[in-house]
Every structure is written in C-alpha cells, then in structure tokens.
Automatic annotation (TrEMBL):
Protein species of origin: Streptomyces poonensis
Signal peptide region: none
Entry's transmembrane regions: none
Protein name per Swiss-Prot or TrEMBL: TetR family transcriptional regulator
Residue range(s) of DNA binding per entry: 29-48
Amino acid sequence: MGGAAMSTRERILDAAADILRTRGVAHATTKEIAQATGVSEPTLYKYFPDKERLLLAVLEERVPGLSQVTVRPGEGDVEENLTELAHAALTFYQRSIPMLGALLADPRRMAAHREAMSRHGAGPDRAVAGFAAYLSAERDLGRIAEDADPEAAAALLIGACFQEAFLRYYAEGRDAAAAPRARAEALARAVVRPLR
C-alpha cells in the first residue's frame, strides 16, 4: 500500500487503540472508530474486514507483547528466555485486560468473539501453546529435564502472568505502571527451576 494508505491504516489503528483501551471491545463500535479517524465505515472495512481483525491488529501492533519477543530453542539461557516471554506476557495482559474484560460478562458476544478469533487463527490459548512448544523444544535438546511437562509449565507461567496483570489492573486501574522485569524473572524462575 502507498504512503497515504499506510497513514490511513495507522490512523485507524491509533484511534482504535485509544477507543478500545477506554471503552473495551464489547462497547466500542467500528462507526465510532471510523468517526474518530475521520474516515467512513466502508473505508475502515477496506483495511480491516471485521472488528475482530481490527482488534487483532491493535493487539499485535499497538500493544507491546509477545509478538515483539523472539526466543529460539537452544539459544541463550532457558530461564532468561522465559523471563523475556513472561515480561512480554505481563505487559500484553496488563494492556489488553481493559479492552477485553467486558466480553466475559456477555456469553453471546464472547461466543461470537471466540468464533471470530478462531477464524483468524488467534485467541488466548495461543500463548500457552507457544510457550509449551518452546519448552518442548528445549526438552528435546536436553536443556530441561526429560520428564518435564511443557504444557503444564507453560500453563502455570501464563496463568501467573495473567493473574499478576489482573491484580495490577485491579489495584491501580488502566494507567498502572508496567510490571517490572524483576516480577517476570521471579515467575520464570519459579517455573524453570523445577524443570532442571
């Protein structure tokens, strides 16, 4: 896409990120996002075929998180790699909870959201699967215990990250400071040490 198209897309993402952060995905509308961007709704749909694809783009491009972290099995220290992943997960969850929280209260919207995320190959289960795949590869390389359970360890770490992010949001609200790296280190250490 050309420069003008890119700037329109970027403006849409910026407006969507602001609106989703303050109103949440359950209450924000594409009409509202289009108006905040200064484009028509049909123009918005040229860039994003549905609201879920727009949400995914916001989460991937405007919310710091797992997509910005690359760790490779066999490289670096396992605990340090998991710290990087955990810190990214903490940041992502802390920023995305206000956007997605209201969906939990509406079973119909939640089901529609779940179906749409599945169509786009996305959803909250992807984080656990990604961590588990990383840990499985490290186990295959002999860098963690042969009898380690990558799925359980991944679920524990992701669950701890989500809980930490939720508690920070609960205590301090939408503008809470990002979780410190030291917290991610403690969570990663608690998961990795038993795997060795």
